[in-house]
Amino acid sequence: MVKGSYTLRQVVELTGLSEFTLRGWETRYSAFKPRRSETGRRIYSAQDLEKAMLLRELTNRDYRIGDVANYSLEKLGLLLKSGSGSSLEQEKERESSRLSGFVAKIFECLSIRDWDASEDILKNLAKKEDPLELIRNFVIPVLGELGLRVGKSEISISQEHILSAQLKETLFQMLARDRTIETKARLLVAAPEGDFHELGILSAHVLCSCMGIRSLFLGANSPKSEITDTAIRFRATHLLLGTTISRKEGAKEDLPSLIHFMDRNLPKHIALWIGGRNSSDFRAQPERSFYRFESMADLEKMARALIK
User: Fold this and answer.
1) What is the DSSP secondary-structure string of 17-61?
2) Total-model pTM
3) More confident residue, 38 or 97
4) Is the pLDDT score of 85 beyond 50?
5) How far apart are CA 134 and CA 120, in angstroms?
6) How far is residue 108's CA from residue 173's CA, in Å, rounded to a whole number?
7) Most exposed residue of 88, 134, 188, 294, measured as fewest CB within 10 angstroms of its CB?
Protein backbone atom coordinates (compact mmCIF):
# COMPACT_ATOMS: atom_id res chain seq x y z
CA MET A 1 0.00 0.00 0.00
CA VAL A 2 1.35 3.42 -0.97
CA LYS A 3 2.04 5.72 1.98
CA GLY A 4 -0.91 7.99 2.63
CA SER A 5 -3.45 5.64 1.02
CA TYR A 6 -6.18 3.65 2.71
CA THR A 7 -8.47 0.74 1.97
CA LEU A 8 -12.21 0.99 2.47
CA ARG A 9 -11.94 -1.05 5.66
CA GLN A 10 -9.28 1.30 7.04
CA VAL A 11 -11.40 4.37 6.29
CA VAL A 12 -14.33 2.70 8.06
CA GLU A 13 -12.17 2.03 11.12
CA LEU A 14 -10.62 5.49 11.23
CA THR A 15 -13.81 7.51 10.68
CA GLY A 16 -16.41 5.35 12.37
CA LEU A 17 -18.59 5.64 9.28
CA SER A 18 -20.21 2.51 7.89
CA GLU A 19 -19.15 0.97 4.60
CA PHE A 20 -22.69 1.52 3.33
CA THR A 21 -22.48 5.25 4.14
CA LEU A 22 -19.09 5.71 2.48
CA ARG A 23 -20.17 3.89 -0.67
CA GLY A 24 -23.36 5.96 -0.78
CA TRP A 25 -21.50 9.23 -0.44
CA GLU A 26 -19.18 8.17 -3.23
CA THR A 27 -21.68 6.78 -5.73
CA ARG A 28 -24.67 9.06 -5.13
CA TYR A 29 -22.94 12.35 -4.37
CA SER A 30 -19.41 12.01 -5.84
CA ALA A 31 -17.89 12.99 -2.49
CA PHE A 32 -14.81 10.84 -3.19
CA LYS A 33 -13.10 9.51 -6.28
CA PRO A 34 -10.89 6.68 -4.98
CA ARG A 35 -8.56 4.96 -7.39
CA ARG A 36 -8.75 1.21 -7.88
CA SER A 37 -6.10 -1.38 -7.09
CA GLU A 38 -5.16 -4.08 -9.59
CA THR A 39 -7.74 -6.33 -7.92
CA GLY A 40 -10.45 -3.66 -8.12
CA ARG A 41 -10.40 -2.55 -4.47
CA ARG A 42 -11.04 1.08 -3.61
CA ILE A 43 -7.93 2.97 -2.51
CA TYR A 44 -8.59 6.26 -0.70
CA SER A 45 -6.10 9.12 -0.39
CA ALA A 46 -5.22 11.06 2.76
CA GLN A 47 -7.38 13.89 1.41
CA ASP A 48 -10.31 11.48 1.02
CA LEU A 49 -9.88 10.39 4.64
CA GLU A 50 -9.79 13.99 5.85
CA LYS A 51 -12.88 14.81 3.79
CA ALA A 52 -14.77 11.81 5.19
CA MET A 53 -14.05 13.04 8.73
CA LEU A 54 -15.21 16.57 7.91
CA LEU A 55 -18.38 15.29 6.25
CA ARG A 56 -19.05 13.06 9.25
CA GLU A 57 -18.92 16.05 11.59
CA LEU A 58 -21.06 18.25 9.36
CA THR A 59 -23.76 15.62 8.86
CA ASN A 60 -23.78 15.11 12.62
CA ARG A 61 -24.67 18.80 12.80
CA ASP A 62 -27.65 18.24 10.50
CA TYR A 63 -26.08 19.41 7.24
CA ARG A 64 -27.38 17.49 4.23
CA ILE A 65 -24.73 15.40 2.53
CA GLY A 66 -26.09 16.34 -0.90
CA ASP A 67 -25.42 20.00 -0.14
CA VAL A 68 -21.83 19.66 1.09
CA ALA A 69 -20.45 16.53 -0.62
CA ASN A 70 -18.72 18.45 -3.41
CA TYR A 71 -17.18 21.16 -1.25
CA SER A 72 -13.39 21.42 -1.12
CA LEU A 73 -11.50 20.52 2.06
CA GLU A 74 -10.94 24.22 2.70
CA LYS A 75 -14.63 25.06 2.41
CA LEU A 76 -15.65 22.11 4.57
CA GLY A 77 -13.17 23.18 7.24
CA LEU A 78 -14.42 26.76 7.21
CA LEU A 79 -18.02 25.60 7.39
CA LEU A 80 -17.22 23.39 10.37
CA LYS A 81 -15.40 26.22 12.16
CA SER A 82 -18.30 28.60 11.58
CA GLY A 83 -20.39 26.55 14.02
CA SER A 84 -24.11 26.94 14.54
CA GLY A 85 -24.02 30.66 13.87
CA SER A 86 -23.83 30.14 10.12
CA SER A 87 -26.41 28.13 8.23
CA LEU A 88 -25.76 26.28 4.99
CA GLU A 89 -28.11 28.66 3.20
CA GLN A 90 -25.95 31.56 4.35
CA GLU A 91 -22.88 29.71 3.09
CA LYS A 92 -24.54 29.20 -0.29
CA GLU A 93 -25.45 32.88 -0.43
CA ARG A 94 -21.85 33.85 0.30
CA GLU A 95 -20.59 31.54 -2.44
CA SER A 96 -23.08 32.95 -4.92
CA SER A 97 -22.20 36.50 -3.90
CA ARG A 98 -18.47 35.81 -4.21
CA LEU A 99 -18.80 34.50 -7.76
CA SER A 100 -21.26 37.26 -8.69
CA GLY A 101 -18.35 39.64 -8.17
CA PHE A 102 -16.53 37.85 -10.99
CA VAL A 103 -19.66 38.18 -13.16
CA ALA A 104 -19.48 41.95 -12.67
CA LYS A 105 -15.74 41.96 -13.48
CA ILE A 106 -16.33 40.04 -16.71
CA PHE A 107 -18.83 42.62 -17.91
CA GLU A 108 -16.50 45.43 -16.89
CA CYS A 109 -13.89 43.82 -19.16
CA LEU A 110 -16.53 43.47 -21.87
CA SER A 111 -17.44 47.15 -21.72
CA ILE A 112 -13.84 48.31 -22.23
CA ARG A 113 -12.93 45.39 -24.51
CA ASP A 114 -10.10 44.22 -22.26
CA TRP A 115 -10.00 40.66 -23.59
CA ASP A 116 -6.70 39.78 -21.93
CA ALA A 117 -8.17 40.56 -18.51
CA SER A 118 -11.37 38.61 -19.12
CA GLU A 119 -9.38 35.64 -20.41
CA ASP A 120 -7.20 35.67 -17.28
CA ILE A 121 -10.26 35.78 -15.01
CA LEU A 122 -11.90 32.87 -16.80
CA LYS A 123 -8.75 30.74 -16.84
CA ASN A 124 -8.24 31.20 -13.10
CA LEU A 125 -11.86 30.37 -12.34
CA ALA A 126 -11.76 27.22 -14.49
CA LYS A 127 -8.57 26.11 -12.76
CA LYS A 128 -9.51 26.80 -9.13
CA GLU A 129 -13.28 26.66 -8.69
CA ASP A 130 -15.55 23.70 -8.14
CA PRO A 131 -17.10 23.00 -11.59
CA LEU A 132 -20.68 22.70 -10.36
CA GLU A 133 -20.48 25.87 -8.28
CA LEU A 134 -18.90 27.69 -11.21
CA ILE A 135 -21.69 26.68 -13.58
CA ARG A 136 -24.44 27.49 -11.05
CA ASN A 137 -23.16 30.81 -9.78
CA PHE A 138 -21.05 32.16 -12.63
CA VAL A 139 -21.62 30.64 -16.07
CA ILE A 140 -25.43 30.67 -15.93
CA PRO A 141 -25.62 34.26 -14.61
CA VAL A 142 -23.14 35.40 -17.29
CA LEU A 143 -25.21 33.75 -20.02
CA GLY A 144 -28.38 35.34 -18.68
CA GLU A 145 -26.83 38.80 -18.53
CA LEU A 146 -25.26 38.38 -21.96
CA GLY A 147 -28.65 37.46 -23.41
CA LEU A 148 -30.26 40.54 -21.85
CA ARG A 149 -27.59 42.86 -23.20
CA VAL A 150 -27.78 41.36 -26.66
CA GLY A 151 -31.58 41.74 -26.60
CA LYS A 152 -31.25 45.42 -25.68
CA SER A 153 -28.52 45.96 -28.33
CA GLU A 154 -26.19 47.20 -25.60
CA ILE A 155 -23.18 45.29 -26.92
CA SER A 156 -21.73 44.82 -30.37
CA ILE A 157 -21.59 41.59 -32.35
CA SER A 158 -17.83 41.42 -31.84
CA GLN A 159 -18.21 41.80 -28.06
CA GLU A 160 -20.79 38.99 -27.95
CA HIS A 161 -18.72 36.67 -30.16
CA ILE A 162 -15.46 37.17 -28.26
CA LEU A 163 -17.00 36.67 -24.82
CA SER A 164 -18.93 33.63 -26.07
CA ALA A 165 -15.71 32.12 -27.45
CA GLN A 166 -13.91 32.72 -24.15
CA LEU A 167 -16.77 31.13 -22.21
CA LYS A 168 -16.64 28.07 -24.49
CA GLU A 169 -12.93 27.73 -23.86
CA THR A 170 -13.58 27.96 -20.10
CA LEU A 171 -16.19 25.23 -20.25
CA PHE A 172 -13.86 22.94 -22.20
CA GLN A 173 -11.12 23.62 -19.62
CA MET A 174 -13.50 22.38 -16.94
CA LEU A 175 -14.07 19.21 -18.95
CA ALA A 176 -10.33 18.53 -18.95
CA ARG A 177 -10.36 17.81 -15.21
CA ASP A 178 -10.13 14.20 -14.08
CA ARG A 179 -13.46 12.65 -13.17
CA THR A 180 -14.95 9.26 -12.42
CA ILE A 181 -17.96 7.90 -14.30
CA GLU A 182 -20.60 7.29 -11.64
CA THR A 183 -23.45 5.79 -13.64
CA LYS A 184 -24.13 3.57 -16.64
CA ALA A 185 -26.23 6.33 -18.20
CA ARG A 186 -24.94 7.67 -21.53
CA LEU A 187 -26.11 11.14 -22.54
CA LEU A 188 -26.07 12.72 -26.00
CA VAL A 189 -26.39 16.52 -26.04
CA ALA A 190 -27.41 18.49 -29.13
CA ALA A 191 -29.40 21.40 -30.53
CA PRO A 192 -31.52 20.87 -33.68
CA GLU A 193 -30.76 22.09 -37.16
CA GLY A 194 -31.04 25.85 -37.52
CA ASP A 195 -30.44 26.48 -33.82
CA PHE A 196 -26.92 27.85 -33.44
CA HIS A 197 -27.11 28.65 -29.72
CA GLU A 198 -24.34 26.50 -28.31
CA LEU A 199 -23.41 27.84 -24.88
CA GLY A 200 -26.52 26.56 -23.12
CA ILE A 201 -26.18 22.97 -24.31
CA LEU A 202 -22.41 23.08 -23.76
CA SER A 203 -23.06 24.14 -20.15
CA ALA A 204 -25.50 21.25 -19.79
CA HIS A 205 -22.91 18.85 -21.21
CA VAL A 206 -20.21 20.07 -18.81
CA LEU A 207 -22.60 19.99 -15.85
CA CYS A 208 -23.58 16.37 -16.46
CA SER A 209 -20.00 15.33 -17.26
CA CYS A 210 -18.69 16.87 -14.04
CA MET A 211 -21.35 15.00 -12.09
CA GLY A 212 -20.01 11.70 -13.40
CA ILE A 213 -22.28 10.99 -16.39
CA ARG A 214 -20.72 9.88 -19.67
CA SER A 215 -21.84 12.64 -22.03
CA LEU A 216 -21.19 13.19 -25.74
CA PHE A 217 -21.51 16.71 -27.11
CA LEU A 218 -22.84 16.69 -30.67
CA GLY A 219 -23.29 20.45 -30.69
CA ALA A 220 -25.61 23.02 -32.21
CA ASN A 221 -27.25 23.02 -35.66
CA SER A 222 -27.44 19.20 -35.75
CA PRO A 223 -29.64 17.58 -38.44
CA LYS A 224 -32.23 15.29 -36.92
CA SER A 225 -30.98 12.23 -38.81
CA GLU A 226 -27.47 12.87 -37.44
CA ILE A 227 -28.85 13.14 -33.92
CA THR A 228 -30.71 9.84 -34.10
CA ASP A 229 -27.83 8.04 -35.84
CA THR A 230 -25.29 9.31 -33.30
CA ALA A 231 -27.56 8.41 -30.38
CA ILE A 232 -27.81 4.82 -31.64
CA ARG A 233 -24.08 4.47 -32.41
CA PHE A 234 -23.13 6.03 -29.06
CA ARG A 235 -25.50 3.61 -27.31
CA ALA A 236 -27.16 6.56 -25.60
CA THR A 237 -29.60 5.98 -22.78
CA HIS A 238 -30.66 9.64 -22.76
CA LEU A 239 -30.91 12.34 -25.42
CA LEU A 240 -30.83 15.98 -24.32
CA LEU A 241 -32.14 18.49 -26.85
CA GLY A 242 -31.67 22.19 -26.27
CA THR A 243 -34.08 24.24 -28.36
CA THR A 244 -34.01 28.03 -28.15
CA ILE A 245 -35.69 29.22 -31.37
CA SER A 246 -38.91 28.38 -33.20
CA ARG A 247 -39.29 27.61 -36.88
CA LYS A 248 -40.34 31.22 -37.48
CA GLU A 249 -37.09 32.33 -35.88
CA GLY A 250 -34.91 30.09 -38.03
CA ALA A 251 -35.17 26.50 -36.80
CA LYS A 252 -35.36 23.88 -39.55
CA GLU A 253 -38.74 22.60 -38.32
CA ASP A 254 -41.16 23.07 -35.47
CA LEU A 255 -40.60 21.25 -32.20
CA PRO A 256 -43.62 18.87 -32.29
CA SER A 257 -42.55 17.62 -35.72
CA LEU A 258 -38.96 17.14 -34.53
CA ILE A 259 -40.01 15.25 -31.40
CA HIS A 260 -42.31 13.06 -33.50
CA PHE A 261 -39.34 12.17 -35.72
CA MET A 262 -37.20 11.33 -32.68
CA ASP A 263 -39.99 9.20 -31.27
CA ARG A 264 -40.27 7.17 -34.47
CA ASN A 265 -36.55 6.77 -35.14
CA LEU A 266 -34.99 6.23 -31.73
CA PRO A 267 -35.08 2.96 -29.77
CA LYS A 268 -37.77 3.19 -27.10
CA HIS A 269 -35.29 2.74 -24.26
CA ILE A 270 -33.67 6.13 -24.97
CA ALA A 271 -35.14 8.75 -22.66
CA LEU A 272 -35.72 12.22 -24.09
CA TRP A 273 -34.92 15.40 -22.19
CA ILE A 274 -35.70 18.79 -23.72
CA GLY A 275 -35.02 22.30 -22.50
CA GLY A 276 -34.59 25.85 -23.71
CA ARG A 277 -36.84 28.79 -24.47
CA ASN A 278 -38.56 27.12 -27.43
CA SER A 279 -39.64 24.13 -25.33
CA SER A 280 -41.69 26.11 -22.81
CA ASP A 281 -45.04 25.53 -24.58
CA PHE A 282 -44.43 21.92 -25.58
CA ARG A 283 -47.14 19.74 -24.04
CA ALA A 284 -47.14 16.48 -26.05
CA GLN A 285 -46.13 13.20 -24.40
CA PRO A 286 -43.78 11.09 -26.55
CA GLU A 287 -43.99 7.30 -26.38
CA ARG A 288 -40.92 6.99 -24.15
CA SER A 289 -39.49 8.30 -20.91
CA PHE A 290 -39.70 12.06 -21.33
CA TYR A 291 -38.91 15.13 -19.27
CA ARG A 292 -38.83 18.85 -19.99
CA PHE A 293 -36.44 20.76 -17.75
CA GLU A 294 -36.98 24.46 -17.12
CA SER A 295 -33.61 25.49 -15.75
CA MET A 296 -30.06 24.27 -15.21
CA ALA A 297 -30.95 23.60 -11.56
CA ASP A 298 -33.80 21.40 -12.78
CA LEU A 299 -31.39 19.55 -15.08
CA GLU A 300 -28.97 19.03 -12.20
CA LYS A 301 -31.72 17.34 -10.15
CA MET A 302 -32.51 15.04 -13.07
CA ALA A 303 -28.84 14.19 -13.53
CA ARG A 304 -28.40 13.42 -9.84
CA ALA A 305 -31.26 10.93 -10.04
CA LEU A 306 -29.20 8.92 -12.55
CA ILE A 307 -26.31 8.52 -10.13
CA LYS A 308 -27.04 5.48 -8.01
Assistant:
1) --HHHHHHHHHHH-----EE-TTS-EEEEHHHHHHHHHHHHHHHT
2) 0.69
3) 38
4) no
5) 15
6) 23
7) 294
